[in-house]
Automatic annotation (TrEMBL):
<feature type="domain" description="PEP-utilising enzyme mobile">
    <location>
        <begin position="160"/>
        <end position="231"/>
    </location>
</feature>
<dbReference type="GO" id="GO:0009401">
    <property type="term" value="P:phosphoenolpyruvate-dependent sugar phosphotransferase system"/>
</dbReference>
<keyword id="KW-0963">Cytoplasm</keyword>
<dbReference type="GO" id="GO:0046872">
    <property type="term" value="F:metal ion binding"/>
</dbReference>
<dbReference type="InterPro" id="IPR024692">
    <property type="entry name" value="PTS_EI"/>
</dbReference>
<comment type="function">
    <text>General (non sugar-specific) component of the phosphoenolpyruvate-dependent sugar phosphotransferase system (sugar PTS). This major carbohydrate active-transport system catalyzes the phosphorylation of incoming sugar substrates concomitantly with their translocation across the cell membrane. Enzyme I transfers the phosphoryl group from phosphoenolpyruvate (PEP) to the phosphoryl carrier protein (HPr).</text>
</comment>
<dbReference type="InterPro" id="IPR018274">
    <property type="entry name" value="PEP_util_AS"/>
</dbReference>
<feature type="binding site">
    <location>
        <position position="338"/>
    </location>
    <ligand>
        <name>phosphoenolpyruvate</name>
    </ligand>
</feature>
<dbReference type="GO" id="GO:0008965">
    <property type="term" value="F:phosphoenolpyruvate-protein phosphotransferase activity"/>
</dbReference>
<feature type="binding site">
    <location>
        <position position="474"/>
    </location>
    <ligand>
        <name>phosphoenolpyruvate</name>
    </ligand>
</feature>
<keyword id="KW-0598">Phosphotransferase system</keyword>
<dbReference type="InterPro" id="IPR040442">
    <property type="entry name" value="Pyrv_kinase-like_dom_sf"/>
</dbReference>
<dbReference type="Pfam" id="PF02896">
    <property type="entry name" value="PEP-utilizers_C"/>
</dbReference>
<keyword id="KW-0762">Sugar transport</keyword>
<feature type="binding site">
    <location>
        <position position="440"/>
    </location>
    <ligand>
        <name>Mg(2+)</name>
    </ligand>
</feature>
<keyword id="KW-0418">Kinase</keyword>
<dbReference type="InterPro" id="IPR036618">
    <property type="entry name" value="PtsI_HPr-bd_sf"/>
</dbReference>
Length: 582
């Protein structure tokens, strides 16, 4: 009898293989008192564990193939940086000495404090960085408990062809197991924006997350089928079902292989409409992946990680160096840099928050442009760095979470002040640098026509726009099923923004996950979107859809989808839109 389990598909593809159930046996952490004479010995035990964790991660990094995507090593490097941060290697030491507690308990207390900070973050993408804290802390705990290296970290080939079943996975786990030949993974927890799922997409590993209590239903070595697009996992499939999925697996592999022919082709519909495909990025190292994917530039460069896991905000020269590396690496293709989208809950100064006010709901509090304007010195430092970097290539500046005209005018005024300062200092920059605003809350979409008169471009951030419109948290396992890009309210807000851009001759792009989902490409084209920005690995598939689309032959009722609330009717309309185009 076939058993079907449903989760969230986060990395497309079909996989067939036998289950390997992964248990991270976490030690039971309890507090006990350390005698005064043994305090420094306990400190040494903790620091030795930190060093062992560092050596383990370096060993993992050394096993990563040279041809692996650049973001693979960046995940490992993130964990190494965390081990070098005082929040993990110094504060627990202070606790051991002050409280005379054991190393495990001091580490656990600090872990809880850090997780609380991340749990309060409003940005789902950044909030999932709490996983990295857990992954690093768990590694140290296993070392302190004298547990052996996990079997999946031993490259003996035993995992080849297997589907990993786990509560959750670290990026390091994923890299190692991919190197050993796993064909997919299914986890009980995780979100679409976690490091692990981003990595799965980069490596082309089919993956499903959010399958509650999956380890209760699966036997070790049991045959499984995984569909990473629909989020379906099948156990005990009959011969007919197996045969069907074997055919789908072959077809999917052929499809992926065929995409390479689009890399050198221009992005243009069959009836001659040119479309711009850009990439999202957050690290200078991402440039290599972006260039190989055939992107026409960077539509969203996130700058938040320059500010996190450090004792103080980055200075102007450090930021200039990072931005210059990106823009020069893109060989004069445009790079849109978003000013920092931090919140009052994000620690950047050694444990104190940027804003000392207690935040009841950070999603509605001091974040993004609001925080930028409340911290003008830090904001000006970033604006100066971006302006100076514009002397080395094509850069655009984008302000996040604009909700009022006053915010936009204040930000533009600060930018003008920075330009005047650079003029006085005889420092070069692009005097005609373009300035844009993100449309990611309903208020800004409704007022897009007003904002369009004050900027050079607009960019729709669908991740936040959907969440704020529908009042849901997409990484909350209890409500993420409500996250719906096709909700009529969401589509109407997108359409209003596109129409505002058209009315005032202002470019409008989309940089949320919706832009990189080929299921929505034709609908967005029909709505008038001409600039897409997405994860580099999604570019060729979206490009294929665009190049095989004839806009003049899309169903005349395409935009009726904005007035449809019946889920079945929505599916039928989307299926019709995505049907063959001649």
């Amino acid at each position: 009898m076939t058993l079907e389990l449903q989760g969230i598909g986060v990395s497309r593809g079909i996989a067939m293989g036998r289950a390997h159930i992964l248990f991270h046996n976490q030690p039971d952490v309890r507090e006990y008192l350390i005698p005064a004479f043994a305090i420094e010995q306990e400190v040494d035990r903790f620091l030795d564990a930190i060093d062992q964790a560092r050596q383990q991660l370096k060993s993992i990094r050394n096993h990563i193939p040279a041809n692996a995507p650049a973001d693979v090593t960046s995940f490992i490097d993130t964990h190494l940086l965390m081990l070098n941060d005082s929040s993990l290697n110094k504060i627990p030491v202070d606790m051991i000495r002050q409280r005379r507690c054991n190393a495990e308990w001091a580490l656990q207390l600090q872990r809880d404090a850090l997780i609380n900070v991340f749990n309060e973050m409003d940005d789902p993408y950044l909030r999932t960085r709490r996983d990295d804290v857990d992954h690093v802390v768990n590694r140290i705990h296993r070392i302190l408990a004298d547990q052996e290296v996990a079997d999946h970290e031993i490259p003996d080939g035993r995992l080849k062809g297997h589907i990993i079943i786990a509560e959750d996975l670290t990026p390091a786990d994923t890299v190692l197991m991919q190197h050993q030949g796993i064909v997919a993974f299914v986890t009980e927890h995780g979100g679409a924006t976690s490091h692990t799922t981003i990595l799965a997409r980069s490596l082309g590993i089919p993956a499903i997350v959010g399958v509650e209590s999956v380890r209760r239903y699966v036997q070790d070595n049991e045959p499984l089928i995984v569909d990473g697009e629909t989020g379906v996992m099948l156990l005990g499939a009959d011969e007919r079902t197996q045969y069907e999925y074997e055919g789908r697996l072959i077809a999917f592999r052929e499809h992926i292989s065929s995409l390479s022919r689009y890399k050198s082709q221009p992005t243009k519909t069959r009836d001659g409409k040119s479309v711009t495909l850009l990439a999202n990025a957050e690290l200078p190292e991402d440039v290599t992946t972006i260039s190989s994917a055939g992107a026409q530039g960077i539509g969203l460069y996130r700058t938040e990680f320059l500010y996190m896991n450090r004792l103080s905000p980055p200075e102007e020269e450090e930021q200039l160096s990072a931005y210059r590396d990106v823009v020069e690496g893109m060989n004069n293709q445009p790079v849109t840099i978003r000013t920092f989208d931090l919140g009052a809950d994000k620690t950047v100064d050694g444990g104190r928050n940027l804003n000392q006010t207690v935040v009841t709901n950070p999603a509605l509090g001091m974040r993004a442009i609001r925080l930028c304007l409340s911290q003008p010195a830090m904001f000006r430092t970033q604006l100066r760095a971006i302006l100076r970097a514009s002397a080395f290539g094509k850069i655009k500046i984008m302000f996040p979470m604009i909700s009022t005209m006053n915010e936009l005018l204040q930000a533009k005024n600060l930018l003008e002040q920075c330009k005047q300062e650079l003029d006085k200092e005889h420092l070069e920059y692009d005097h005609h640098i373009e300035v844009g605003a993100m449309i990611e809350i309903p208020a800004s979409a409704v007022c897009a026509e007003i904002f369009a008169q004050q900027v050079d471009f607009l960019s729709i951030g669908t991740n936040d726009l959907i969440q704020y419109t529908l009042a849901i948290d997409r990484i909350d396992d209890h409500v993420n099923y409500l996250y719906d890009p096709l909700h009529p309210a969401v589509l109407r807000l997108i359409y209003m923004t596109l129409q505002a851009g058209k009315l005032h001759n202002v470019d409008v792009s989309m940089c949320g996950e919706m832009a990189g989902d080929p299921r929505y490409t034709r609908l967005l084209l029909a709505m008038g979107l001409e600039n897409f920005s997405m994860h580099p690995n999604a570019i060729l598939e979206v490009k294929q859809v665009i190049n095989e689309t004839n806009l003049n032959e899309l169903p005349v009722n395409t935009l009726d989808i904005m007035n449809t609330s019946d889920p079945l009717e929505l599916d039928l309309l989307l299926e019709k839109i995505n049907g063959p185009s001649h």
